[in-house]
Amino acid sequence: MKRETWRTWILVGVVAMLGAGALAEQARERRRAPKPMMQIERSETTSIERRCASGCVRLVLLKRQGAWELTEPWFAPADADKIEQLTAIAAAPLKQRWEREALIPADIGLEPPFASLKLGPRLIEFGDAVPGHQTRYVRVGSMLGLVQDRFSALLTGPPESFVDPRPLAGVVPVSGSHLGQPMSAAALEGWRKLVARRIDPLPQVFPGHNLEFRTANGKPIVVMFDLRGDEVALWRRDVRALYIIDAAQFAALGGGGA
User: Fold this and answer.
1) Which of 97, 191, 198, 217 is the most exposed place for a label (fewest CB within 10 A)?
2) What confidence tens digit (pLDDT) does each residue in 105-121 have?
């Protein structure tokens, strides 16, 4: 065999060894990488339930006909960003893990849990935070672990924080009126795209004025409004929350007029 052929085969062997070494190193890195709390198909999740022991309200969110809705404690179109954040919790990497027998659940705040999150049929329970370490104990089935403590707002937030900030989310109005006067096409389009600056709890009494929208099948959507200085509070009658918008936004929509 010619010397050049030997050299070629030697180079091929060296390249193959280097490639095998790189693949082996990648495999080691994958094994060393933190594992997620739970493996779920986020696109296939159609129900979410959140509970907590700190007096916050139990939430149930369901995906219906491709859209997420808050169904308990009351109905509202759900904020898609919050749904994404809730389902992303399952992929949070574990800082440390143990089998159930290694720790006493009651000693780490899991009997009862600080909060729980059910994604479809899969349950994650959250225990005590570890002072000074920004981590929190979790339980998934027979596994106990530690994750970064960055979910408290999601696990304890009020129902209003999970509401879609668009007052007309989930409906497509084709007409609207205020005090019997029809809205212009531009005003109606502005209402369809309107996004609230925040969502507030609904008070027991709301002294407002009516706007009425109708969908293509004639279904009425009644929205009450109340002027409050540089803000306007909107109450969509089928949602137990207030949408707060800027008074300037309201004025740009003609105050609901034509």
Assistant:
1) 217
2) 999 999 999 999 999 99
User: What stretch of H or E contains 21?
Assistant: helix 3-32
Distance CA 52, CA 43 (A): 25
CB of 78 closer than 8 Å to CB of 69: yes
Give whole-number Cα distances, 186 to 7, 97, 102, 178, 195, in Å.
Answer: 76, 57, 64, 15, 16
Q: Are 35 and 93 in contact (CB under 8 A)?
A: yes
**At a CB cut-off of 8 Å and minimum separation 6, what does 241 contact?**
76, 159, 160, 163, 199, 200, 201, 202, 235
Domain coordinates in residue numbering, the chain: 42-161, 165-256
- Which amino acid, 174? V
Measured CA to CA, the distance from residue 63 to residue 55 in angstroms comes to 26
pLDDT at 20 over 70: no
Q: What is the pLDDT of residue 12?
A: 58
Residue 258 is classified by DSSP as -
DSSP for residue 195: -
Which amino acid, one-letter code, is at 58?
R
The closest alpha carbon to 225, from 182, 257, 256, belongs to 256
- Is the pLDDT assigned to residue 136 strictly greater than 60? yes
Instruction: Compute the distance between CA of residue 238 and CA of residue 220 in angstroms, rounded to an integer.
Output: 11
Could you report the per-residue pLDDT of 182-223, keeping only the tens digit for each? 999 999 999 999 999 999 999 999 988 999 999 999 999 999
